[in-house]
Design a protein that fits this description.
Order of helices and strands: EEEEEHEEEHEHHEEEHH
Helix content: 25-40%
Largest sheet: 5 strands, antiparallel
Strand content: 25-35%
Number of domains: 2
Number of strands: 12
Strand order of the largest sheet: 1-2-3-7-6
Shape: globular
CATH superfamily of the largest domain: ATP-grasp fold, B domain
CATH topology of the largest domain: D-amino Acid Aminotransferase, Chain A, domain 1
CATH class of the largest domain: Alpha Beta
Number of helices: 6
Radius of gyration: 17 Å
Bound molecules: cytidine-5'-monophosphate
């Protein structure tokens, strides 16, 4: 079992670079490292609905730590370095691509509302979608030629985003299955290192993946907040506890 080790670090936080929906990102005294602080915040509808939820930052941080550590140990390079407190971690500074990569194993969320698909039907093949990261434009759907024409990524990079997302999907699907959870869909973000290599970034938590209890069908992710169907931290806690048993 992985009980989180908070690493003592000589790195200091400097200026606030960016406040996201559930995180603050700070520069540090090392130009290659960023400091992420997880907030006790949940948002829906691209930030239009916002609520403070006590303990959520800690849960997101702990789950993200476990999932990134698992991926690192299973050959998936990513930006995560180490956790320094219950809500803070250090990551490699990347030039983040303005693209969200969504992978869907089962129909849910916007896939159902857009295509009137049967909710929870198994998707074969697995669906991959790109979205342009823009709150002002509500993260519109974007296709390959649009990405290339706008210079958001190269053709090679798009191939890598697809391949990496498939690898992450296989590894996380198997991991979650072991603890009785079905991975419905998820969103990944990627960035370029200073050498121009593509690396998995952002966070890995029930804020950006749909997770359902295999036995009960209960939702263990942010849908509970989106749909006002209960205390979102209950499911997150369940996910954390189950992952801690095996990672
Ligand atoms: O809303 P939609 O069905 O397109 O979401 C697909 C998956 O991507 C869900 O797991 C959702 O949590 C995630 N997502 C995200 N950030 C967004 C859009 C979707 O984490 N901006």
């Amino acid at each position: 079992m992985d009980s989180i080790e908070y690493k003592k670090s000589s790195i200091s936080r400097t200026t606030l670079e960016y406040t996201g929906k559930a995180k603050k990102v700070y520069a540090t005294d090392n130009p290659d490292i960023l400091w992420i602080h997880y907030l006790d915040q949940a948002t829906a509808l691209n930030g239009k609905v916002k609520e403070t939820i006590r303990g959520k930052g800690e849960l997101n941080s702990a789950i993200s730590h476990l999932l990134f550590t698992y991926l690192t140990n299973n050959g998936v390079a990513n930006h995560y370095l180490y956790t320094i407190s219950k809500t803070d971690e250090l990551v490699t500074k990347l030039n983040i691509l303005p693209i969200e990569v969504v992978t869907r194993n089962y129909a849910s969320g916007h896939f159902v509302s857009k295509f009137d698909a049967v909710a929870m039907q198994k998707l074969d093949p697995i669906v991959q979608e790109f979205y342009y990261k823009s709150d002002e434009l509500d993260d519109p759907f974007i296709n390959d030629s649009q990405i290339l024409a706008l210079g958001f990524a190269t053709a090679d990079e798009l191939t890598q985003l697809r391949q990496e997302s498939q690898v992450v999907n296989k590894k996380l699907t198997r991991l979650f299955e072991k603890v009785g959870i079905k991975l419905i869909d998820f969103k990944l973000e990627f960035g370029r290192t200073k050498d121009g290599n593509i690396l998995l970034a952002d966070e890995l938590s029930p804020d950006n993946m749909r997770l359902v209890d295999i036995e009960t069908g209960k939702s263990l992710d942010k849908d509970v907040f989106r749909q006002h169907s209960g205390d979102v931290t209950v499911g997150y806690h369940e996910v954390l506890t189950r992952l801690q048993e095996i990672i």
